[in-house]
Structures are given as C-alpha cells and as structure tokens.
Amino acid sequence: MKEKVFIKTFGCRTNIYDSELLKKYIKDYEITYKEDEAKIIIINSCTVTNGADSGIKNYIHNLQRKGIKIILTGCGAFSKGKELFDKKQIFGVLGASEKNKINDLLNTKKNFYEIGNLNFIDKDIVSKYEHHTKAFIKIQEGCDFNCSYCIIPSVRGKSRSVKEDILLEQAKILAQNGYNELVLTGTNIGSYGLKDQTSLGKLLQKLGKISGIKRIRLGSLEPAQLDESFFEILDENFIERHLHIALQHTSETMLRIMRRRSHTKNDLALFQKLSSKGFALGTDFIVGHPGESEEIWQEALANFKEFNLTHIHAFVFSPRNNTHSATLKNTINGQIAKERLNILKNIVKENNYNFRKNYKNTKLEILVENKKDNIFEGYDQFFNKVKIHSFKDISKEWLSVKNYNIKEEYNEVILRHDYEK
C-alpha cells in the first residue's frame, strides 16, 4: 500500500499552480486530500510577511507532535528552509527549481536540502486541477522591482517568462479538458515577455483565439507596465471585466518612500480610462507604512476617492525582515492604521454596491464554483460574488442571467431553470 502525501498550500495563486505541478511528479505515493490521512506533508509556503513565516512555523510545530514527515517548499524554503532544516524541524527542503526531483528524494528515505536556484522556469505544464472549476496558468516567475517593503524578488528571483508556445499548448489542453475560465498568474505578470520582445497583450490576443476558452482572468498587474498591446485587447469578450492593478498607495510622496515605479497622476488617468470602458477595478493598498503622516494620509484619501475602486485587498503595514521598510523609524500607531484601513474598505464597499446598481440591466455571466449552506456561489464577469438558489445541481456550470437581486454585499439569483447555458 502506498504512503499518502498531503500538500498544504499557503499564499498566492502561483503556489496553487506549483502545488498542482508537484502532484504531477509524485509517482510512488498516493496524493490524499485529507490531511489526517497523510504520513508525509509537503508545505508549499508563503513568506511575504513575518506573520506568514510564523504561521508556517506553528503549522510545522503541530505536525512534529504527530510524527509527520515534513517537506518544505515554496518561498519559505529560501527564507527559512536552512534554519528549520538545521534544527531538524523538517525532513527536507525543496527549492522551486527542484520540484521534478520530489519522487526520487522521497524514495531515498534520507533527509535532503535541495534548494536549487532562482533562474529556473518550469518546462512541464499542469493539465488538470483537482477541486477547481477554473484553471491557473503560470506565465512567468520573479520580479525586477525593488519595492521597499517586499522580500519576494529575493525568494523568487528576477523576472523570466514561460515561452509562448508552451503556454498556448497548455491553454489548448486545459480547454479540451473542460476548463473554460483561465486565470493567468505569476509573480509580476505585467512583465511577461519584456525580455523576449513580446508582451502580455500579445499573449492574450493569441490565448483568446483558442476554442473553448470563455473567459480569461488576470492576476495582479503593475500600472507602469501596461502597454498599447494590452489596451488593444480590452474590448475582447474573453477578457474578464475586472482588473486588479496594484497601486499600494495614492500619495505621490508615499509611492516614492515605497520605491514604487508608478505615479499617482498617471495611475488615476489609467483607472479613469479603464472605468470608462466598464471595468470593475481592484487594487492592493498598504496603510500605515512608515512615513504615512496625517498630511500624507489626507492627500492619499482625497486621491483614493477619485479612483472609483470596486474591489480592494488592503492591509496594515507590518515590517518584513530583510527589507528596507523594516529599517524605517517614523512608524504609525497601529490603531490609527486600522482606522485608516476601515475607511478605505467602507469606501470601496459603497463603490461596489453602486457599481452593481449602475449595471443592473447587464446580463451576468457566472461560473458556479461551490456550494455553501445549500446555496451555490460563483463570480460574474465583474468578479462580484453571486449567490444562487437552485433545486438543481448546477455545480461548475455557466449561467447567463438577466434577472437578479442586488444585495448590499453580493448579487442574488433565484433560478427557475429557464436560464441560458
């Protein structure tokens, strides 16, 4: 009987992709989706914050008490792998470039530290996803930015792109396997192809022509990287009508402190252009970064209200060891930072509600993703949550819906099964 392996994935969509690729390489062991059945657990870790590192350590500590064989991979392999390995808290460390060795390393039955390098690009592809209605495609690795608060370039390396022909072949296979929605992911997807005389926009033009692909969703984009080839595809039906563009802040002074490449004036012009095309717009935003004085905050808040954001991933700054921001002294009181965070969230919540009311007569294209408390859930083309009441099992189906109720935090559909498929 084969030993059972469980893969615990922390962090971003890139890690979700990497976990699926790991499964492909495991031949002599049985993959289980029940953690308590596993004798071996591979932790695909996140290290974006000190808190992420602490969470991984706590998880490892709990596994140790159960006598589980622990393998650490992901971003945390570079930031914490050596420390944990030397303390014998884990059985092995597997760098992202060494994923294809996992089966052989497990078979040797010996402890291993295979950290690899940060120059690799995956040659193999993921052709199916367990327990996912949509498919992720990792189009690039690494980042050439040097944002003051971020450790990711040091654990993912410089930006490098997957060859276009590999991505197109992967998309064709996924479409043939029934995945009609693709999510393009990576560390910094806006940098795709810049070192290979191509671009994200050109890639999207070709992906959109593949039969069977209904919708393409994009991961986080950097405003400074969007070029003419990207704007040319924005009217295509296959592009999700939601874009997530990472601002991080809306004060020009703060952007310089954060060592960002973008500028508030240019960012606002970009968002207004996209909003005029009917896109729902999301962003990342860090509040309470060192240097965010009351004057800077008020400037940022006034600017923020002009962006008309409908989605936000905002969080209070926490210093990340081995980054420039962690060395800065003029820190912000935690309670003040939380108050600022809530102000932004409430603005975006109201914006989202108004956006959905303004588009009340728009037909929603929904991919049903899961079921909770006997209610189906999915996301429409604007990346807004939709709750669906149905007596029929509509899991993984596409719905095209004209009639729906607009609730404060989501849209609601009550099906009588006369919808279009």
Would you summarize the structure shown here?
This protein is of the alpha/beta class. The chain is built from 13 helices and 19 strands. Helix 5 (102-108) links the parallel strand 5 and strand 6.
What's the arrangement of secondary structure elements?
Layout: E1 4-9, H1 13-25, E2 30-31, E3 40-45, H2 50-64, E4 69-74, H3 76-79, H4 81-86, E5 92-94, H5 102-108, E6 112-114, E7 135-141, H6 152-156, E8 160-161, H7 164-176, E9 181-186, H8 200-207, E10 215-218, H9 228-231, E11 242-244, H10 252-257, H11 264-276, E12 280-287, H12 294-304, E13 311-316, H13 334-358, E14 364-372, E15 375-379, E16 385-389, E17 398-401, E18 405-406, E19 411-414
Parallel strand pairs: 1-2, 1-3, 3-4, 4-5, 5-6, 7-9, 9-10, 11-12, 12-13, 16-19
Antiparallel strand pairs: 7-8, 14-15, 14-17, 15-16, 18-19
